[in-house]
Specification:
The complex is a heterodimer of chains A (564) and B (196). Chain A is 66% helix and 0% strand. Chain A has 564 residues and is an all-alpha fold. Chain A has one domain (20-562): Cytochrome C Oxidase, Chain A. In chain A, α11 packs antiparallel against α13 (402-432). The two termini of chain A are 23 Å apart. In chain B, α2 (16-41) runs parallel beside α7 (165-192). Classes of the chains: A mainly alpha (564), B mainly alpha (196).
Chain lengths: 564, 196
């Protein structure tokens, strides 16, 4: 163990003293607005992502209150439609993507031994474009009535199927806000991804060959490539929709020979890779956390890289499994069913490798590890329901039911959000210099895990019983009541968990134990510098000889490069 | 010392500019692909005239102009590497002129189609996909012309340092990409779809 980790003589300074060290509020705001530093931008991404997370989470809570009992009139039907649209759009574009970019921004330059991203100003541009796209989406509540005084926030669902978005059915400007917001967000994501690719390929420190990069960096590289290929179709969709709505174009106008199904194809050509854009960073975090807390190097590093590239490649050819029920040819259905089932192979390889990493390891059940363990089980369930839905006839039965809702919430919460929590607890000491509080974190973990399963597991059953998604209420006597009630009760636990999470973030920032450079005894380069790192990251750029450069530094008698 | 330790003596990484422009071209290609697919998908699906076979004429001169501008920009770069400032400016200006001719040709074609053949974005799905695809390409030509003109003006003012040849090379890569996309667009729009 590293003896410098905990300083026994250290005394916790009074809170005001810390405030002085960290600069006044106006100074901080000024810093944040003008900064091009990848670490500050990374934290801003994560911070604004968490704020949007709370807002979209409150919407979800209100949705669950409405659905708790049959024939409820807590929310009006049109308000309900706006809520599920805004909840979905915000969670994907304003929570998932920015938090992922935040982690990538903060960690990639540190992990590859660089001083900053390749294009720091482009990086700041990407953040602000994302941030204003978020504000634009929420501004629709005020601005969208437009001249017609009809409509408010977008209410067309997060995938905005045509012809719901046609002028005749979506009056006012709510859909336009949705469109422009996603177009802007797409530009932000693309420039940030170009920046990430260039940084990873061109700014690695001496000796950091591709085969020695941390798996986190590898997976983020794969994600960035997916973004630059999958995002332009979404932007194209939005451009077409703008032309349709403002210039009278006929892309999705069925009366003029246009096709509503084309929108579905184009949207899901973006939409399915998007799922992997969201889940691969979850894998990235798990691939960093699990080895460190198992005290073993990752099992099967080259296979992990190959599996990630395979997942990304296959994900570009599976989009129409979202459309089995629109009536494609049998050949089309078969192709997309098989390609979807293929994804299970590399994903399974990954799960086995994480288990292989833990096997025989000296496990430490710290907060990041707890969240990663839960992730493994939950993602397995998500993967299994995904395989079920890939079978076209099964999908005909259950598409657009609560089974699908349960499936993708197991992917995005059980998979992505849990690893995001793991990542936040794992790198919190590095970014803010303080250890997160274990007891508060444990409360967060238990409450959130329990609440998550209580909320989303019953939705599988409600789906089997035929409950369609996106209905604002239902009649009693269909067997759905009890599952919806249980599901809504689970929200209480989740909300309590999130409350403890937020309390922990604030509490530990002020009163947390000082972390030191390397509190988890980890191996990647970000732990070789101070916590928080200086603006120039490293005083001397290190030279890397193995996949665990910090292990080599800490154990000169037994370095990794002798064996690799 | 084992071989593994002695290995990394030389450490070379790709140029940030080149990787950035290549990724930009990849992402732009994805964008063009969607509009091309939309055009191909709607080929022959217009419910009302005008149809492509009635109004489209192969833009021979414009195509020759745009494709030869890819050659002149290479001559321009060669002159720059050889240190011939005058030849560089001349070829660079010819490139701009050829690009501008292409743009003028598109403008005239659109004017003809809109005012004489009554084909607009809102006429039918052919109009929708034609103007969006060709317009997307034309907007890239405009961006390229802006960059080329900017370089010419700055270079004539003596504001382009001698070691910035790679910056100019990146603009030429972008210009080559715009030309290459035109080959695909012209094939799809003016050769394949003209039968409908």
């Amino acid at each position: 163990m590293n003896p410098d980790t905990f300083d026994p003589n250290f005394q916790i300074p009074a809170p005001e003293r810390i405030g002085e060290e960290r600069g006044s509020l106006t100074r901080i705001i000024q810093e944040l607005v003008f900064t091009v530093d990848h670490k500050k931008l990374g934290l801003m991404y994560i911070g604004s992502g968490l704020i949007f997370f709370v807002v979209a989470g409150i919407m979800a809570t209100l949705i669950r209150i409405q659905l708790a009992v049959p024939r409820n009139d807590f929310l009006e039907p049109d308000v309900f439609n706006r809520f599920f649209t805004m909840h979905g759009t915000a969670m994907v574009f304003l929570v998932g993507m920015p938090i992922i970019f935040g982690f990538a921004n903060y960690l990639v330059p540190l992990m590859i031994g660089a001083r900053d991203m390749a294009f720091p100003r482009l990086n700041a541009f990407g953040f602000w474009v994302f941030f204003f796209s978020g504000l634009l989406l929420y501004f629709s509540y005020l601005g969208a009535p437009g001249l017609y005084a009809a409509g408010s926030a977008p209410d067309v669902g997060w995938f905005a199927y045509s012809p719901l978005t046609a002028k005749a059915f979506s009056r006012g400007h709510s859909t336009d806000y949705w469109t422009l917001s996603l177009l802007m967000g797409g530009i932000g994501s693309i420039v940030t991804s170009i920046n990430i690719i260039v940084t990873i390929l061109c700014l690695r420190c001496k000796g950091m060959i591709l085969g020695r990069m941390p798996l986190f960096v590898w997976l983020i590289l794969v994600v960035a490539f997916l973004v630059i290929i999958a995002m332009p179709p979404l932007s194209a969709c939005q451009i077409m929709l703008i032309l349709d709505r403002f210039a009278g174009a006929k892309f999705f106008d069925t009366q003029a020979g246009g096709s509503a199904v084309l929108w579905q194809h184009f949207f899901w050509i973006f939409g399915h890779p998007e799922v992997y854009i969201l889940i691969l960073p979850g894998f990235a975090i798990a691939s960093e956390v699990i080895p460190v807390f198992s005290r073993k190097p990752i099992f099967g590093y080259p296979v992990m890289v190959a599996a990630s590239v395979m997942i990304a490649f296959i994900s570009l050819g599976v989009w129409a499994h979202h459309m089995f029920s629109v009536g494609m040819t049998s050949i089309g259905n078969t192709f997309f069913a098989i390609s979807t089932l293929l994804v299970a192979i590399p994903t399974g390889i990954k799960i086995f490798n994480w288990i292989g990493t833990m096997y025989g390891g000296k496990l430490r059940f710290e907060l990041p590890m707890l969240f990663c363990l839960a992730f493994l089980f939950q993602f397995l369930i998500a993967g299994l329901t995904g395989v079920m839905l890939a079978i076209a006839p099964f999908d005909w039965q259950l598409t657009d039911s609560y089974f699908v809702v349960a499936h993708f919430h197991y992917v995005l919460i059980g998979g992505l959000l849990f690893t995001i929590f793991a990542g936040i607890y794992y790198w919190y000491p590095k970014a803010l210099g303080r250890m997160p509080d274990f007891r508060l974190g444990l409360l967060h973990f238990i409450l959130f895990t329990v609440g998550f399963h209580i909320t989303f597991f019953p939705q599988h059953i409600a789906g089997f019983l035929g409950m369609p998604r996106r209905i604002y209420t239902y009649d009693t006597g269909r067997g759905w009541d009890i599952w919806n009630l249980i599901s809504s009760i689970g929200v209480i636990f989740q909300a309590a968990g999130i409350l403890f999470f937020v309390i922990n973030l604030i509490y530990s920032y002020v009163w947390g134990k000082k972390a030191g450079d390397d509190p988890w005894d980890a191996w990647s380069l970000e732990w070789a510098t101070t916590s928080p790192p200086p603006s120039y990251n490293f005083e001397t750029i290190p030279e890397v000889r193995s996949r665990r450069p910090l292990w080599d530094l800490k154990h000169p008698d037994d370095p990794d490069w002798k064996y690799e | 010392m084992t071989t593994a330790a002695a290995q990394p003596t030389e450490w070379k990484l790709p140029s940030t500019r080149k990787v950035a422009v290549i990724t930009l071209i990849v992402t732009e290609s994805a964008l063009f692909t969607i509009f091309l697919v939309a055009y191909l998908f709607y080929m022959g699906k217009s419910l009302n005239p005008p149809f492509p076979s009635q109004v489209l004429e192969f833009p021979l001169l414009a195509t020759i102009a745009l494709l030869s501008s890819s050659v002149t920009i290479v001559f321009s770069e060669k002159a720059l590497h050889a240190g011939k400032k005058g030849a560089f400016h001349l070829w660079w200006a010819i490139t701009i002129a050829l690009g501008a001719y292409f743009l003028w040709f598109t403008a005239m074609e659109w004017k003809h189609l809109i005012f004489e053949r009554d084909l607009t974005l809102a006429t039918n799905v052919f109009g929708t996909t034609f103007y969006s695809l060709v317009g997307l390409h034309a907007s890239h030509v405009i961006i390229g012309l802006f960059l080329l003109t900017l370089v010419l003006v700055l270079s004539l003012l003596g504001k382009v340092p001698a070691d910035h040849t790679e910056h100019l090379e990146m603009i030429s890569w972008y210009w080559h990409f715009v030309d290459a996309i035109w080959i695909v667009v012209v094939t799809v729009v003016y050769i394949i779809s003209i039968r409908y």
